[in-house]
Design a protein that fits this description.
By secondary structure, the chain is α/β, with parallel strands linked by helices. It has two domains: about 5-70, Helicase, Ruva Protein, domain 3 (Orthogonal Bundle), CATH 1.10.8; about 80-290, Rossmann fold (3-Layer(aba) Sandwich). It has 14 helices and nine strands. Strand 3 (about 120-125), helix 7 and strand 4 form a beta-alpha-beta unit. The protein is elongated. It binds S-adenosylmethionine.
């Protein structure tokens, strides 16, 4: 990119660089990046503004454009992704929240709003998007969030600190439900919310480089058939759930039938509801604990 200190020229150079790198939506993305990094508005750019961009701003924009030109996801470059109406900070090491995961928040909110004080655990919280949205939607709930990744939890706590200072979320580090199993909440959890890794090895090979090279494998890789982590969760869930507790899980394309077989084999749950996302893909599975008493 040539050195130009006019905002309109900066925009043209940015579009050229992104186009050359094969970024499909180059014009829109250049605008987003320039607005985020410089405070220059798209109106100024459209007006062919000849306002001078200082060197520091120029270098900041160029470095972000270069990251995007190397196909780093736009959300990492911009540093955030909107989820359930909230701006969630993300950075490499933390999964970018996906719109289909909002289904988990919608279903949990519908299901739990009539409870006096539901206890919810968001297992594998990542950026904290689910825990924060649930705490905002269900003010009367006790919300716990856990992750194996310490760095993801740091980002989640930062995100929670940006909103509702009064909302208390209990943050735990560890493998699946292990951090809860010896706590006083074991046996009292109303709902487990789980968007855990579910990408199979076959699917992993087909993932786009934008995802595979930048998003954390720990957040995506669910083992050979994608269900390794969910199998372990099903095994651990009965010891922390209340007798009428539920598990809400997000699953991948074509996984519902295999998951149903696992659920039936466990004899602790039955499938209460399956909800499809906006593309018609069965995405959210709600399991109801079977009472053996
Ligand atoms: C698919 S990401 C989902 C993140 C976030 N809940 C969301 O919806 O965007 C899965 C998350 O589970 C975490 N994770 C993976 N294996 C885990 C395990 N065994 N125990 C706890 N967390 C785990 C990853 O670090 C990652 O943050």
């Amino acid at each position: 990119m040539s050195l130009s200190l006019f905002s309109s020229q900066l925009y043209r150079d940015a579009v050229d660089r992104l186009t050359e790198a094969g970024i499909g939506n180059a014009q829109q993305e250049a605008l987003w990046i320039i607005e985020e990094a410089s405070g220059i508005t798209r109106l100024q750019i459209y007006a062919e503004a000849r306002d001078v961009v200082d060197l520091e701003t120029y270098q900041r924009v160029v470095s972000l454009i270069e990251r995007r030109a190397l196909h780093e996801p736009l959300q990492y470059v911009l540093g955030s992704q909107e989820f359930c109406g909230v701006d969630i900070a993300v950075k490499p090491g933390v999964l970018i929240p996906r719109p289909e995961s909002e289904l988990l928040v919608e279903e949990a909110t519908l299901l739990l709003q009539s409870y006096t004080q539901p206890v919810i655990i968001d297992v594998g919280t990542g950026s904290g998007c689910l825990a924060i949205s649930l705490a905002r939607a269900l003010k009367h709930a006790v919300v716990i969030a856990s992750d194996l990744s310490f760095s993801a939890l740091q980002v989640a706590k930062f995100n929670a600190g940006k909103y509702d200072k009064n909302t208390q979320i209990l943050w735990l580090t560890g493998d699946l439900l292990a951090p809860l199993s010896s706590s006083s909440l074991a046996g009292k959890v109303t709902a487990i919310i789980a968007n855990l890794p579910y990408i199979s090895h076959e699917e992993w090979d087909r993932l786009s480089p934008d995802v595979k090279d930048f998003e954390p494998r720990l957040a995506l890789d669910g083992g050979p058939d994608g269900l390794d982590v969910y199998r372990r969760l099903l095994h651990e869930a009965p010891s922390v759930l209340a007798p009428d507790g539920v598990v809400l899980m997000e699953v991948g394309v074509g996984q519902v039938d295999r998951l149903r077989e696992e659920v039936e084999a466990s004899q602790f749950f039955h499938v209460r509801k399956i909800q499809s996302d906006l593309q018609g893909i069965p995405r959210m599975v709600c399991l109801q604990r079977i009472s053996h008493s």
